[in-house]
Predict the structure.
Amino acid sequence: MYVTADSGGSAPRPPRLPRPRSEIAAFQPYRTPPVKADVRIQANEWPEPNPAGHHITPQELDGVLLNRYPGRGDELRDVLAARWGTRPDQLILGNGSNELLLQVFLVFGGHGRKTLLFHPTYTMHGRLTVLAGGTVVEEMVGLPYELTKERALAAMAKARPEIVVFTTPNNPTGNTIDGDLILEIAERYPETLVLVDEAYSDFAGKTLVPRMDAYPNMVISKTFSKVLAAAGLRVGVLIVHPELINYFTAAALPYNVSTLTLAVATRIARDEASVQRRLALAAKERKRVYSALRRISAVDVFPSVTNFILFRLREGKPADVHARFLEQSVLIRDISMWPGCQGCLRASLGTPPENDRFIAALDAVFAAPAVPR
């Protein structure tokens, strides 16, 4: 609605409204458009259905009282602490890991403080840094994503950041970062917070959690959205050294994980047999999809240890290839606008039948016979 300057018919003028910080005004929403497809392998979710009814019975549901604020999630903390070999009081629970990542940047970042990122990597780290008022320093590693100790140390010496982020395995490239590299950064820069995003670490079978006691400046984030198959539940975990934990608990939002979420998450966390089954299936399907992509001469495909695979076009436009996949009712992710990902697309692993559809679509999409390499 516009208002006039006076009653004499003057030209309307825009209403006077509050304005956000300039860097926020330039933001676009972080979302993917709603697109219909039979095969949806664009979001790195676990593809098999995981109904809540598999984990909590109607009778147990009746015991979840919604009139009271939720507790601290002590039972869930106990289960997760046993799973990761840490202490329950080192775990901070969140409404998805992004809430906890934002908390990291709010507590240790902010105005006048820098976050060092090694691109290409998970773009939310940069967005959350800016949301918290901080400044992003970008070190472009490029593809293939091979971050060396020498390069990381040089970037640290140049940037002198308050926060440095390592995503391992890395999204979108799917490979790991050398753990000794991360630990050396933590040791050499004890006043820098070292954030290790381990959203996909179960697929790699590697974690730095057992080394945390010796590195109090290192925090590690985990999620229920990947191998625990609960992206819709919205549960994240931050593992923090006792010397830093009070800063995070003081800044945490109260009652941020619902009573119902805590009840279901606790049961999911106990189901180790399902985790092991998923890991075995992911390894089998990853090998199959990777091999199929390797036979396509039009792309370069990057090795992955996760539930997704990155590939880069040798020619042509990613948007056109994305559209041709959609014509086959297969939805993948065009990430060519991510820093360092020019010409790239990313495909998550689906169920075996969904991966059959993706593999079958390859020849139609690239409109040429597959060429072995």
